[in-house]
Specification:
single chain; 5 helices; elongated
């Protein structure tokens, strides 16, 4: 099976694309803050995983691979990723803000909380896009 790659040039300008790009950038800044402050490994690992996974989803949609690789419902996987990332970010970044061992950890925690909001916005935008096979109708009238 040959996969032809076509770039979706309108995706970065769409609301979903802009949020995805913002997630990658804020996650990278969070990673830099945690790495520069020599924060515990969980903080840095979470930020690094967020950069990589969100970057891969960005490439997936940018190169239209979600249409070519139809074996998985990609928007649902992306929603699942966003929700799980938001939960982990809530826990880890609240700890980072609370312990604030140094200014880098505090800054990373604050950027992580901004990233949490972006994850929630991304999940909501993706959920609104999904149709699940179209609108459902009642088979019997309401009484």
């Amino acid at each position: 099976m040959a996969v032809t790659v076509k770039v979706n040039s309108s995706y970065p300008r769409s609301p979903r694309g802009a949020v995805k790009i913002a997630r990658v950038l804020v996650a990278f800044v969070t990673l830099l803050c945690f790495a520069a402050s020599r924060s515990p490994g969980a903080f840095t690992a979470l930020a690094a995983m967020e950069v990589v996974i969100t970057g891969l989803f960005l490439l997936l949609y940018l190169l239209r691979l979600d249409q070519q690789l139809s074996g998985l419902l990609w928007p649902l996987a992306d929603i699942f990723n966003s929700v799980i990332a938001a939960l982990f970010l809530l826990i880890v970044c609240l700890f980072a803000v609370i312990i604030k061992t140094n200014k880098g950890t505090l800054a990373g925690g604050v950027f992580g909380l901004v990233l949490l909001v972006l994850c929630v916005v991304d999940a909501v935008l993706l959920f609104q896009k999904m149709s699940f096979g179209g609108p459902r109708e009642r088979s019997t009238p309401a009484k």
